[in-house]
Write a structure and sequence with these properties.
The chain has one domain: Glutaredoxin (3-Layer(aba) Sandwich), CATH 3.40.30.10. About 30% of the residues are buried. The strands form 2 sheets. A 6-stranded mixed beta sheet has the order 1-8-7-4-5-6, with helices on one face. The protein is about 35% helix and about 20% strand. The protein is α/β, with parallel strands linked by helices and about 190 residues long.
């Protein structure tokens, strides 16, 4: 059982490395490269094949040791975003998720769950330094949620309705403030 979990962690790590997210250098060679990289970061696909799947009953933690039981979050729609500090598309879409969280406060909960496996204590400061004050710094360092959801690429964003049933998932970066995103989000209401 333990060997199987270790093997799964290894496979997941390789999948994430080979997927759309990779570590970006601290400096960009050309401004055009940065702009085209941002445009590429905001591309992905919507997947409805898991519609109706219940919200996993897992527990998340933050760096301070606070816990959040996902199974207790039914009652209003929930948008879970799996991301990492080293994932370029993730970082590009975080400000848009922050705006969405502010605009939908009270009607939709936006839950960001970092997939950083090391230095998890840096997640909250990472968000704070970027002024992302509406995003909660929840952690999944053991990748339990990632495994449960079957997410193989970051970012991955999953919408649940108020009954805790999956509506859709979006794989890749997205502009969460766009009209298309608003139409997709309306499906949970």
């Amino acid at each position: 059982m333990l060997l199987s979990r270790s093997l799964k962690l290894g496979v997941l790590g390789l999948a994430l490395i080979a997927s759309a997210c990779d570590r970006q250098s601290a400096t960009q060679a050309q401004p055009q490269a940065e702009a085209s990289s941002e445009a590429k970061a905001l591309s992905g696909t919507i997947d409805r094949t898991h519609a109706g799947t219940p919200l996993p009953k897992l527990e998340l933690r933050d760096a301070a040791g606070n816990s959040l039981k996902l199974g207790t979050l039914s009652g209003k729609p929930l948008l879970i975003n799996l991301w990492a500090t080293w994932c370029a598309p993730c970082v590009v879409e975080l400000p848009m998720l922050n705006t969405l969280a502010a605009e939908m406060d009270g009607t939709l909960r936006v839950l960001t769950v970092s997939q950083d496996m090391r230095q998890t204590e840096n997640v909250a400061p990472f968000l704070a330094q970027r002024g992302l004050d509406r995003l909660e710094p929840w952690l999944d360092p053991g990748s339990d949620l990632t495994f449960e959801l079957g997410a193989q690429t970051l970012p991955a964003t999953i919408l649940y309705d108020s009954d805790g049933k999956e509506v859709w998932r979006y794989i890749g970066g997205n502009d969460w403030t766009s009209a298309q995103s608003a139409a997709w989000l309306d499906e949970a209401f």
